[in-house]
Amino acid sequence: MQIGVPKETWPGELRVALVPQNAKKLVNLGFEVIVESGAGTNAGFTDADFEDAGASITADHGGLVSGADLIFKVRKPDAEDVSRLKSGAISISFLDPFNEKDLVESMAQQGVVGISMEMIPRSTRAQKMDALSSQANLAGYVTIIRAASQCPKILPMMMTPAGTIAPARVFVIGAGVAGLQAIATAKRLGARVEAFDTRPVVAEQVQSLGAKFVEIDLGEMGQTEQGYAQELTPEQLELQREGQKAVIAQSDIVVTTAQLFGRPAPVIVGRDMVEGMQPGSVVVDMAVETGGNVEGSVLDETVEIDGVKVIGQGNLPSDVAKNASEMYSNNLFNLVDEFWDAESKTLNLDPEDEIVEACVITRGGHVVNETIKNIYSGA
Question: Please, which pLDDT band fits residue 221 given cuts at 50, 70 and 90?
Fold first, then answer.
C-alpha cells in the first residue's frame, strides 16, 4: 500500500503531514512511503532525512497524488488534486467539512475515502489521534510568546536596585486545550494570570496551573459530550461581557480562545472593552480564523485600537512547525496503526466503529458522515 505525502501549498503553511520518524514506522509496517521533494524543509526535515527512514523522494507532484493509496496532508486537498486521486484512495487531512461542501462532494464523486482530522472524537481511545488538541496545545504556547513580544512590559516580577517591576497581568478567556496551555506558559514566564470559562467544571484545572478562575454567574451551563462549551444565549453572552469588562480593563495581555465546533466563533470582547485597556496592552484573538472573538480583529493582521494591539494571526501552530509536524504526524500514524490489518495489508475502516463513523466523511461515492450529510441537506 502506497502512502503519498505532498508538499503543502496553503499560503503560510510550514508544517508537513509526516515526519521521518513515523515514515520509518510505516515502512516497517509494510507501507511504501513516497514524499514530495522539499515537503518537510520548512519544518526542519530534509529529503535525506526521509530517505534515511526508508521513504522515496519524488519531484512529480501529480504522479505522487494519482498513484497513492493513502494521501497524508495537513491542509485540505485542492480541486485539482482531488481530480487526480484514484477511486478508493484514502485522503487524510484537516478538511473543514462544515464549510467545504463543494470540495467534500467532489471527493465523494471521485470515489475517495475522505477522513477529516477535525472530526476525530474526543474519547479516551481516540485521544492519541486527536489532531485538533495536539495543534491547539502548541497554539496556546505560541499565543503567549507572540503577546509577550508585542507587550511593552515584561511578564515576570523583577526586583532590582532600580526598583521593583510588578508582574504583567494576563487574562485568558476559554480554558480548553489552547487556553490551558496559554495559562501554563504565561505562568512559567512569571505573569499574574486570571482565566474564565463558561464551563465551571474547568475551574479546578485553571487553579491547578496557579491561575485565578474568574467567577461570572451565567446561570445553567455545561459542556457537550465531546467536551466543548455549549453555545450561550444572547443574555448569557451579555452577562459574560459585563463580567469580563473590569478584568480586561486592568489586564496587560488578553487571550481569547472561545470557539464553537462547526460554527462561527462568538464575539465576546467588544470594541469598547479594547478601548478601555491601557495603551500598549495586547489582545490575541485565537478564534480569528472562524470569525473572531474580538470586535475589530483582522485575520493575519495586527491592528491598533486606541493604542491597544489586537493580534489576529491565523495558523499559530506553523510558528513552531517542527514540533507541530511531529505531533500531527503522530496523530496520523496512530490513526493508521489503529486500523491497519497486517495480514490483509489493508486499512480496516469498519463503518460501525465509533472513530470511523465520526471522521470518515466520504466513502463509496457518497457523503456518509451523518452530521455533515444533514447539514448539506439542510436537515
Answer: low
Beta strands in the chain (DSSP E): 2-5, 32-36, 56-58, 70-72, 90-93, 113-116, 158-160, 163-165, 169-173, 192-196, 212-213, 253-256, 282-285, 302-305, 308-311, 340-341, 346-347, 360-363, 366-367
Report d(CA 324, CA 316) in Å as an integer.
10
In the set 123, 127, 150, 223, the catalytic residue is 127
**How far is Cα 255 from Cα 140, in angstroms, rounded to an integer?**
9
Region of poorest pLDDT, from 131-145, 252-266, 352-366 = 252-266
Query: Is residue 228 annotated as part of the catalytic site, yes or no?
Result: yes
Residue in 279, 249, 262, 269 with CA at minimum distance from that of residue 312 = 269
| Nearest by Cα to 198 from 180, 166, 178, 222 | 222
Catalytic residue among 21, 66, 69, 122: 122
At the topology level, CATH places domain 2-129+321-377 in Rossmann fold (3.40.50)
Mean pLDDT score of the chain = 94
| Grid cell for residue 12 | 503560510
As a whole number of angstroms, the distance between CA 30 and CA 161 comes to 65
Grid coordinates 472593552 are at which residue? Answer: 273
Report the pLDDT value the prediction gives residue 243, as an integer from 0 to 100: 84
Catalytic residue (one of 47, 81, 130, 285): 130
CATH number assigned to the domain covering 133-314:
3.40.50.720
For the stretch 153-181, pLDDT in tens is 999 999 999 999 999 999 999 999 999 99
Q: Which of 37, 228, 271, 319 is catalytic?
A: 228
Residue ranges covered by each domain of the chain: 2-129+321-377, 133-314
Phi (first) and psi of residue 50, to 5 degrees: -70, -40
Rounded to whole angstroms, the Cα distance separating 182 from 167 reads: 16
- For residue 234, what pLDDT is reported? 81
Residue 220 has pLDDT above 70, yes or no: no
**Catalytic annotation on 130?**
yes
Q: What is the band of 227 on the pLDDT scale with cuts at 50, 70, 90? A: low
What gap in Å lies between CA 258 and CA 240, rounded to an integer? 12
Q: Is 84 helix (H, G, I), strand (E, B) or coil?
A: helix
Identical topology for domains 2-129+321-377 and 133-314: yes
Is 122 catalytic? The answer is: yes
Give me the catalytic one of 123, 133, 150, 223.
133
